[in-house]
Amino acid sequence: MSAPSTETDKQRRLRARLAELIAAMSPGEPLPAERDLARELGVARMTLRRAVDGLVADAMLVRRQGAGTFVAPAKVAHRLAANSFSADMRSRGLRPGSRTLRSGRGPAGVMLAALLEVPTGTPVLHVRRLRLADDEPMAVEDLHVPADLVPGLSGADLENRSYYELLAERYGHRIASGTQTAEAALTGAEDAAVLGVDPGSPAFCFERTCRVDGGRVAEFVRSIYRGDRYRIMADIFPS
Question: How far is the C-alpha of 31 from the C-alpha of 48, rounded, in Å?
Fold first, then answer.
């Protein structure tokens, strides 16, 4: 947590006391009413409000319009590796889930065909899913798969199911390798509405292609992860 250099000792003490209070609370728990909290801490409500604003900016608290101020959800740490969402969440002690928002088949355009290494116009299955961790929105995902690789697969099949597991169990294709990129992003209006955050909120954008045994590209996925719930980790090895 970084404090502005213009803070007085009194303001720093107030932020520290609020940080101690937050540390003793559970993620998602509401902050006490402003009037009561100001009285307990012995400060003016305006002073308290400025301190809370700073903790919101530090992502320790979140405001929900019409509901109040809450302790921010704990962030999920993610090591840089091409792994399935379901496996990643399970490895962190969270229950993965997904809800299909829409799905359909259509011809691949030039860019998508190049990513999937198929001719332009090849039928492609597109499934848009909301990915959940312990029933809370974590990411919104757009999955693109060559339709002939997964005949009969539908968006309904992917409701609360791992694509990689279905790919192996139903079609006999196992993921052999993958390439993933990650970059900082801001949520657009449509993604923000699905994720339950404000438009323009910080996010991570992941794009991934994976190949199955035999070398064929089995997917192109673009995912937007909530920046307030997700953290990226990388291992460092001395050279």
Answer: 12
